[in-house]
């Protein structure tokens, strides 16, 4: 009897290991994509219908609630800083020497004419905290087998009530995402690529955002340099740092 | 016979002076009122043309699709070359570049923190180049309530109501927050130099006026403009001339050149202006018709009275053997001559008064200080081709009809009773 039960149990464990639940997949995706803190420099290449612009910035994130971004390039944007604490956003413009608070609904507006919203750019949400997943099947993206997972929001205050993610089975990185409004309308598409291993995790260096409600070829968000879980001094997330 | 009658009219002042004077006054009033009504209606169309539509407006095809959203990312570019070409190809048209934009006006407190904030609609027009055309079109000098017009870059005009709402005073620094042509955030400080009252709710709630070069700097719109507005000479919207202009423009700038190529819109093609122009024309025609009819009745009545006044004279002429139909004919001819003389003199005087009113206008700004609707302050007359003929309707036709009706009485008179009537 033992001869049958033990191999059966081993087989079950093995099958389970090969087919994790949606929750387990999301958990692993979060481990790759999110961190206690993130410090990164990035480049946004915005492909508008009439031109292409490049904007460089450096960002500091702490969890889901605190974020600080300073724009480095081009000259027109250089020195502009943004501070987001929970759902409040302050912007400092060096030309006016003023800090202006932007109301909450603006957080879903485009950043610098890109296909990213302030929330997209400045938040680092743990999917598991906001969504419940369901595996719909498997599909190949760039010759990599992916789980197709539908994520439904648990809370009403998220920007996208439904997400559909194609998660790489080997690396637990979404390679493609579709983001939907509560009404079911497709709002944005994301393509994640140039996946590399950094500090023991897989991470995409390039994300192509496409706001489907906007003209243009989308915005390439390129990570130039990223550090996970480094210490960030508290003053960074204060209004005083905006004018420094 | 005509020469004989004309001599009679000219020599017999009692027979001619009063009828000719009445016809002259009636025709003059008809001409002046017609021209003035045309002028007022034209001024109302002009007011819309000056602020928003122009007689023609040049924008991109893509901008037109979302025009209500003021999409400056779809604005005209290479404006300097375009304007030079327009000035060369359409030298009679006055062109003006404009930028319409939306954004927030943020007022800081002493610590630089936001004290008040409100959404604004902005007009970027030429205020500082020395060309006063746009300042005049926007009637800014007359609309100033406090302060003065901008004379330096970085100065801003704000509607009086908006400035009170935001509790901002002359000399205060305010921050404009908007979006550049490329979608980036735009922030810039301005000094409030004056407040304005346009006299129309929409513009008085929350509008700001800034020099177009300042707007270009803030919105990253170098050598770009939301629109180029064009005005015919004398500020008179003439559909025929505008249509000719459009045909020529479309030959020079074919629509197939791309979605950001310039296209032209006439005033009629914008918003509901076409409908408004038609309604104004209809209302104007009805008003003129009512006046012409009433004036016709007055002159008809004058013709009738003239016939009755000469009751004895016709009796004598019948008594000496003149034929009924001959007397009737001479009456009609006389009415015709009086009508022609009165209509010519009335039209001449009427046109002279209208010409003066067309050039100088009637300034009613002092009694319209507190007007709450968008109305022109100076009312001009407008002379057109019809003004040369309109007076002849009451002047000629009514005099003849009046005389013809009163003349019918001649046929009812009996020769046997004439001497008794004359003896009495």
Short recap of the structure:
With 244 residues, chain A is an alpha+beta fold. Helix content of chain A is 16%, strand content 48%. Chain A has a domain at 20-57 and 110-229: Lipoprotein localisation LolA/LolB/LppX (outer membrane lipoprotein receptor (LolB), chain A, Clam).
Give the helix/strand class of chain A. alpha+beta
Mean pLDDT across all residues of chain B, rounded? 85
Portion in helices of chain A: 10-25%
For the largest beta sheet of chain A, what order do the strands appear in spatially? 6-5-4-3-2-1-13-12-11-10-9-8-7
- What is the rounded distance between the termini of chain A? 73 Å
Q: Percent of residues of chain B in beta strands?
A: 15-25%
DSSP strand tally of chain B: 14
CATH superfamily of the domain at 20-57 and 110-229 in chain A: Lipoprotein localisation LolA/LolB/LppX
- Termini separation of chain B comes to 32 Å
Mean pLDDT of chain A: 90
Largest sheet of chain A: 13 strands, antiparallel
The stretches of 5 or more residues of chain A where confidence is low (pLDDT under 50) are 11-16
* CATH second-level architecture of the domain at 20-57 and 110-229 in chain A: Clam
Number of domains of chain B: 2
H/E series of chain B, N to C? HHEHEHEEHHEEHEEHEHEEHEHHHEEHH
Give the overall shape of chain A. globular
Tell the overall outline of chain B. elongated
Strand content of chain A: over 45%
What are the low-pLDDT stretches of chain B, counting only 5+ consecutive residues below 50?
none
Biggest sheet character of chain B: 6 strands, mixed, barrel
């Amino acid at each position: 009897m033992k001869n049958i039960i033990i191999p059966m149990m081993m087989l079950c464990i093995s099958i389970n290991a090969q087919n994790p639940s949606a929750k387990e997949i999301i958990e692993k995706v979060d481990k790759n994509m999110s961190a206690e803190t993130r410090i990164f420099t990035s480049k946004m290449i915005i492909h508008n219908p009439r031109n292409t612009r490049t904007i460089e910035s450096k960002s500091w994130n702490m969890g889901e609630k605190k974020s600080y971004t300073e724009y480095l390039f081009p000259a027109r944007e250089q020195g502009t800083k943004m501070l987001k604490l929970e759902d409040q956003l302050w912007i400092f413009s060096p030309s006016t020497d003023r800090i202006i608070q932007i109301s909450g609904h603006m957080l879903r507006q485009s950043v610098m004419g890109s296909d990213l919203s302030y929330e997209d750019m400045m938040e680092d949400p743990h999917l598991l905290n906001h969504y419940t997943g369901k595996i719909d099947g498997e599909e190949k993206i760039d010759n990599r087998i992916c789980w197709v997972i539908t994520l439904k929001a648990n809370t009403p205050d998220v920007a996208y009530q439904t997400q559909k993610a194609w998660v790489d089975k080997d690396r637990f990185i979404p390679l493609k995402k579709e983001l939907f409004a509560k009404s079911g309308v497709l709002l944005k598409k994301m393509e994640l690529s140039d996946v590399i291993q950094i500090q023991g995790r897989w991470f995409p260096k390039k994300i192509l955002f496409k706001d489907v409600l906007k003209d243009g070829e989308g915005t390439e968000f390129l990570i130039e340099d990223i550090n996970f879980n480094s210490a960030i001094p508290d003053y960074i997330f204060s209004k005083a740092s905006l004018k420094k | 016979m005509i020469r004989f009658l004309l001599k009679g009219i000219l020599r017999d002042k009692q027979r001619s002076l009063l009828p000719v004077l009445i016809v002259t006054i009636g025709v003059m009033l008809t001409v002046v009122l017609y021209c003035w009504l045309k002028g007022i209606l034209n001024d109302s169309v002009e007011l819309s043309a000056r602020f928003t539509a122009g007689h023609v407006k040049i924008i991109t095809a893509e901008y037109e699709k979302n025009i209500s959203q003021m999409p400056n990312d779809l604005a005209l570019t290479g404006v300097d070359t375009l304007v030079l070409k327009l000035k060369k190809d359409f030298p009679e048209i006055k062109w003006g570049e404009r930028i319409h934009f939306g954004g927030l006006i943020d007022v800081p407190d002493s610590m630089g923190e936001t004290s008040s904030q409100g959404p604004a609609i902005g007009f970027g027009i030429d205020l500082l180049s020395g060309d006063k055309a746009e300042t005049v079109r926007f009637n800014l000098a007359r609309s100033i309530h406090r302060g003065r017009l901008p004379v330096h870059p970085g100065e801003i005009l704000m509607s009086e109501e908006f400035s009170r709402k935001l509790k901002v005073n002359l000399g205060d620094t305010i921050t404009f927050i908007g979006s550049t042509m490329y979608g980036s955030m735009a922030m810039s400080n301005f000094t409030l130099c004056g407040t304005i009252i346009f006299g129309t709710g929409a513009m008085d709630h929350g509008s700001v006026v800034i020099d177009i070069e300042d707007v270009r700097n803030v919105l990253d719109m170098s050598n770009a403009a939301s629109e180029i507005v064009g005005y015919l000479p004398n500020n008179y919207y003439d559909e025929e001339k505008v249509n000719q202009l459009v045909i020529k423009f479309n030959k020079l700038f074919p629509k197939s050149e791309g979605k950001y190529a310039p296209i032209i819109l006439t005033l009629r093609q914008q918003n509901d202006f076409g409908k408004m122009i038609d309604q104004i024309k209809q209302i104007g025609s009805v008003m003129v018709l009512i006046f012409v009819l009433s004036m016709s009745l007055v002159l008809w009545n004058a013709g009738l009275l003239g016939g009755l006044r000469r009751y004895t004279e016709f009796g004598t002429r019948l008594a000496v053997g003149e034929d009924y139909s001959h007397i009737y004919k001479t009456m009609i001819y006389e009415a015709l001559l009086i009508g022609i003389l009165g209509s010519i003199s009335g039209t001449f005087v009427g046109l002279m008064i209208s010409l003066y009113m067309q050039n100088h206008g009637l300034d009613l700004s002092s009694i319209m200080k507190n007007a709450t609707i968008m109305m022109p302050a100076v009312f001009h007359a407008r002379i057109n081709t019809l003004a040369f003929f309109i007076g002849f309707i009451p002047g000629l036709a009514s005099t003849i009809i009046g005389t013809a009706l009163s003349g019918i009485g001649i046929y009812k008179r009996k020769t046997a009773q004439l001497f008794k009537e004359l003896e009495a």
